[in-house]
Amino acid sequence: MSIKLIMENWRSFKNMQESPSSDEFVQLAQDNPPLPQYVAILKKIAGDSEFRTLARSGRTDASGPPDEALSIERSSTPAQSLYATQAEIGFGNSLADQFINKFSATDAALGNSGSPIIMPSEDKPPPPILTYNGKWILDGHHRWSQVMMTNPAGIVAIDNISGPGIKSEEDALKVVQLAIASLAGRVVTRPFKGVNLMDASPESVYVAAKKNLTDEVVAKLADAKKIPSADRDLAAKYYAGNLDVIKQRKGKFSRETSMPQAGKSGITQNAVNTALKHGAINFINPSSKDSQAGSTRPLPRKKEQK
Q1: Which of 259, 267, 37, 253 is closest to 139 using CA atoms?
Q2: pTM of the entire structure?
Q3: CA atoms within 13 A on the CB side of 240
Q4: For the segment 81-92, what is each residue's pLDDT rounded down to a tens digit?
Q5: Domain boundary assignment for the chain
């Protein structure tokens, strides 16, 4: 066998054995690149066991849990007081269910199903909207947009993240993505498809509403005093009139490159919240020495809800 072939075989073997090092995560934290680049690197290293051990060592690092333990408080706020971090919000995702009260979504948005409002979701039980600093939406944009288009003054339930280690909504998104990567072993972000509500015109909303609104929903809007009477044209104008309110709250980050999607990545948002709350995620100045304890300290057991 030639020396050249031996070297090529060795390099191939070496590449197969090597996986992204925890050093890459340490460098990522030091460089702190913009969110899209940060997420791209997390996607690359998320499956590496060394990275995952280090990223989950917030409770065993030199400072212990308190420095990275975030406050996650359940509270409520008017939907229109929140702002998107995502630049694209689906036209159909925001309006289709509202026009026909599918899954009782219109009832929920109007507060008929309870207050504060928690919109229907694939997750069981449906989660509140995840926010940072009581203002910025981190997860739940389409649940929020449904309320914004039907009842912008409606009071929505939020799980609000805050903590001294987070200085901006971009920091908060990075920390959530890091938690997803370390817990799920992968980071999935889905591309946006369809018409972007944030780029739509009032005329397009009016036409869609006039065509698709059911008599039931028109009556519910009248009962909720959103329109003077149960008139389809008034209801369509009402929806069109709410478009400007939500467009003023458009985010700047792309869904495909940046936005957390815990469920699609293989972990629940509740698990992410629990890890962040108990300081398990090592996002402040991580060092390769942080995981030398060999294992992460277990999280406190969550009490069963009766």
Answers
A1: 259
A2: 0.87
A3: 18
A4: 999 999 999 999
A5: 20-288
Q: Is the pLDDT of residue 296 over 70?
A: no
- pLDDT value at residue 21: 67
Q: How far apart are CA 283 and CA 54, in angstroms?
A: 10
CA 74 to mean position of chain CA atoms: 16
